[in-house]
Amino acid sequence: MKIIPKLIFNVKTLLFFALMSVQLIFAQDPIQVSGTITGSDGLPAAFVSIIQKGTTNGVSADDSGNYTITVPSNATLEVSGMGYATQEVAVAGKSVINITVQAESSQLEEVVIVGYGSQKKADLTSAISVVDAKQIQKRQATTVAESLQGQATGVTVRGGGQPGSEAKIEIRGLKNLQSANPLYVIDGNISTANRDFNPNDIESIQILKDAAAAAIYGSRAANGVIIITTKKGKGGPLKIEASSKMSITNVPTYDLVSRDEFIAITNMAYDNAGAPRQNFNMDVNTDWQKEVFRTGMIQDQNISFAGGGENSSFFMSANYFGNKGTVIDTDFDRISFRVNTSGKKGILTVGENLALSNSVANETGGPEAMRGNPFIDAIRMFPTIPVYDSRNPGGFGYGEQGVANTFAANPVAIANLIDQKVENFRIRGNVWAELKPWDFLKYRFNFGYEASFDNYKYLRNRGSWTLNQPVDPAITEQNRGRWESKLVEHTLTFSKEFGKHSVTALAGTTYQDFKFGQISGNKRNLLINPTTGQYFDVLDQGDNPVVRGYRSESALLSYLGRLEYNYDNRYLLNAVLRRDGSSKFSDANKWSTFPSVSAGWRISNESFFKVPQINDLKLRVSYGELGSGNIGDYEYRAFINTMGAAVFGNNQDLQNAAIQVRLANERLRWETLKQTNVGFDLAMLNNKLTVNADYFVARTEDVLFGFPILLVTGNDGGNPISNAATVENKGFEVNVGWNDQIGEDFHWNANVNLTTLNNKLVKLGNGQNESFSGNTVTREGQPVGMWFVLQTDGIFQNQAEIDAHVNSQGAVIQPQAVPGDIRYKDINDDGQITNEDKIVDGSPWPKFEMGFNAGFDYKGFDFSMNWIGSFGATVYNGYSSIVNVLNGDHNYAAGTQPWTPENPSTTTPRAYYGTSLTNRGDTDRFLESGSFARLKYIGVGYNFPKEWMKQIGFDSARLSVSAQNVITITKYGGLDPEFVNNNIFERGVDFGAFPNVRTYTVGVEIGF
C-alpha cells in the first residue's frame, strides 16, 4: 500500500518540474542577437568576446566588429576584450544590439614595441613616443617622416613639396654636425622608410628618443630610433580592403610687380648709376610663374588581403602612388607590394616580411653649375624676355646684352633641354623563427636582406638656357648602382615572475654587412633618331666616352644584452649593454661599448598613495650612451690618386704616377652621445587626462666632422675627418591629452605637445674656435649657425645725415653714400664699413615647437585636425635678398616704391645699377622672424551604416575629404617658413627651397 502514495508523490513532483521547465522555456525563449562592436573612436573593435553571463555560451566578433549569438531573450551579455573594459548589456528581447566598448583604465597594459622585444606601456622607464598609425595614414604624404609632424614631442620634421622629396627629421635636436637621419627598424629589419616605403602598410610606430630607450641599438642610435611594425593577418575569414585617394595640389607663388613697374624701377636704377638704359622688348609680357608652376595631382591607390587560421596568418598589399608635381617636368611614381606571413607548429613559430618597390623620380635641372632653381629663376627672369626665341640655340629666350641684362636661367628651357630621372628598385624583407620550449624562454633567429638597384639617367639636349652659355653638344650621363645589406641576429629572451618579482633578460648578437658598387659613363655628340626626332640616349651612341667605377663595403658586429626588473608594479629597472665593432675604424679603435640604465617608480601603486582622481603616476630617470660611426667606409686610410703621370729619362717616357691627395687619420674613433633624461607620466580622471613630461641633457663628444684645412698641407682630396667637436642639447618636452565621451555617440579628444630645445657648440676642436659658412658663424659656447651680418640703421634722407654719420673720432663713415642709400653701423668704430663690423645677430633655432591634434566622432561622422608651430627662430629670406635689391638684375616685389627725393622712404633704398653697400646681401635687412603656426591637416569622414553596405556586398565603406597646408599664420615674407636646408650650418637660409604645397584630397575606403 505504501507504493501507491509514493508513486503519486513522484508523479506530482515530475509534473511540478515539468511545469516549471515549460515556464522557464517560455520565459527564456531563445533569440538570435547580432550587432557591431565599436571602440570609442567609432572604429570596429575586432575579436571582442561576447558571452552569455553565467554560461560558457559565447562568440567573438570578427575583424570588422560584427557578431551573432543565440541567447535567451532575458539574458545578459558580458562584453570584454584586450584593452577594453568589461561591460554588461541586457538583451531585453532585442535582436540587434550595437555596443560601444571603452578603453579600460589599463590602457597602460598597451604593449609597446622596443628594440628586440616589447614592454607594457606602464613599465616603460625611458622616453618613448607612440604615434597612432591611423593619423599618419589620413595624410597624403610620400614618406613616413612627413606624417609625423606635430604627432610627438621632441620630433622636428621639415618637408617640401617636390615630388619624391624626403622630409628632414630630427629627434631631440642636433646630435652631430652631419645632419643625419634617425635609424629605422621595420619589422625587426634595420632599414629605411624613405620614398620607396608605403606608409599605408604601417600597423604601429614607436619613437625611441632618449639614450636609455635606444641603447639596445648602440652605435646606430645616436640620432634616435623609429620602430615600425607593418600590418599582419588575423584569424578569421579573408578580409579585403581597398582605398583610393585623389588630390589636387597647388604651390604658393610670389607677388611681383607688373611689366611696366619693372621697367620703371630698372630704368631708375640705370639712371641713378649713369648707365644707358636697356632697350626692353615691349612686345613681350611674360608671367614666368604661370609658365613654370602648374596644378599638380596626387593619387594613392591601395588594396590589401588579410586572413588566417588558428596557427597561421597572412597579409598582402599593393600600392600605386603617383605625384604630378606643381613645377613643370617634375613627377614621382611608386609601385610597391608586400607579403607578411607567419605560422605556428608546437613550440616553433616562423614568419617572413617581404616588400618590393619600384620608384621613378623625374627631377628638374641638372648637375651643371648653371642649372636653374625654378623658384629663383621665376623671379630673376625679366617679364620682357620671351619664353621662346628662335635666334638662340635650342630656341628658348634668355638674357640679351642691352636688351635684357640678366644671367638668370630660363626654367622652361631647362625643363625641355634636360631630362633627369632616378629609378630605384628595392627588395626589403626578413625571415624569422622563434623557438619557445618553455613559457619563460624564447630563442629568436632573424635574417634580414635588403637590396637597392639604382638607375640614374641624365640627358642634356643641345641648346642654351642662359646668357653667354657655351653651346655644348648633346650629352648623356648614366650610372647603375647596387646597394646590398645582410643582417643576421640571434637573441635569447628569459621572462618569468617570482611572486612580486618580474624579470626579463635578453642576450644576443647581431651581424650586418653592407656592399655598394657603381659603374657610370657618359658620351657626347649624341645622334638623333630620324623617326622620333629625339636623341639616342644609350651609351653606344656618341663619342668621347668616359667610364668610371666605384665599390665599397663595411661590416658591423655587435653583442647586446638587456635586463628588465619589476617589483610589485612599483619599482622598475632597465639596464642595457651593447658592444659594437665596425670596419669603418682602424683595429685600434674598432670597438666601443654603449651602456644605459633607467629606473621608474609608480607612485600611484604605493599603499600610502590615496588620490582617487589619479589613475597612474610614474617617475622616470635614465642615463645612457650611444655612438655614431656616420662616416665613409675608408676614412681612416689614405686616399691615393692613381691617375697621375710624369715624364722621365732621356727618351722622355711617360710614366704612371700615384699621389696621396687626402690626409689620413688612423685615430678616428666613435663619437659618443651621453644623455640624461628625467620625466613623469600621469593619468587622471579615469584616464581622460594624460600628461607626459621629460627634461633631457644630451652631449655628443668626439663629433666626427671634416673641417676645412689649408691646401699647403698637401691635402687636395676633401677635408679629412677628425674627432673634433663637442655638441650639447638641452630640452623640455610635455604632452597633454584629453579623451572623453558625451553620451553614447559623441567621443572627442585633444592633444597638445610642446618642445623646447637649446643647442650649443661646446668645443670646435682642432685648435679652432669658430667656423664660417655663408652669412653664419659657429663659435664655441654658441648655437650652431648663428647669423653673422652687417647692421643697418635706416636710410639716409639727405646729405646732412650722411655728413653726420661719423665715428668717435669724427670721420665720416660712408663718404661715398648719397641720399637714399642704407646707413650701416660702424661696430668697431674704425670709420668704415667692412666685414669687421659684422656681429652675431640672432639664431636660426626655434625657442619652442608645438603640435596640436584634435578630433571627434559622432555616429558615422568623424573629424580631425593637426596644427604644427615653430616659434622664436630668425631666418634669412633669400627671396627678399633678390627682389628687394633694386639693381636692375631681376624682378621686384609688388608694391616696391624706391626712395626718391619726391618719395622718401625709411625702408626701401634707392634703385641703383651696380655694386654698392646698399645692394649687399650679408646684412640684417633680410633676417626675419621664422615663427609660424600651420594647419597641417584637416579632414572629415563618414562611415556608411553597415546595414546599407551589406545590401550591396560590402562590410564597410568610408568617404573622406581633407586638406593640408591651407592655413599658415606667419610674418615671414618668403613662400614657406617651413623650409628645409640640408646644410646644418645654414639651416635658417631659405634660398629657393621647394615650398610645401596646398593639397585637397578626396578618399574612398571599402572593405569586403
UniProtKB/TrEMBL annotation:
Residues 1-27 form the signal peptide. Keywords: Cell outer membrane, Membrane, Signal, Transmembrane, Transmembrane beta strand, Transport. It is a multi-pass membrane protein. One of its GO terms (cellular component) is cell outer membrane. It is found in: Cell outer membrane. GO terms for biological process: siderophore transmembrane transport. The keyword Lipoprotein does not apply. One of its GO terms (molecular function) is siderophore uptake transmembrane transporter activity. It comes from the Bacteria. Residues 121-225 form the TonB-dependent receptor plug domain. PROSITE patterns: TONB_DEPENDENT_REC_3. The keyword Transport applies. Its main location: membrane. It holds the Pfam family CarbopepD_reg_2. Belongs to the TonB-dependent receptor family. This is TonB-dependent receptor plug domain-containing protein. It comes from Flavobacterium akiainvivens.
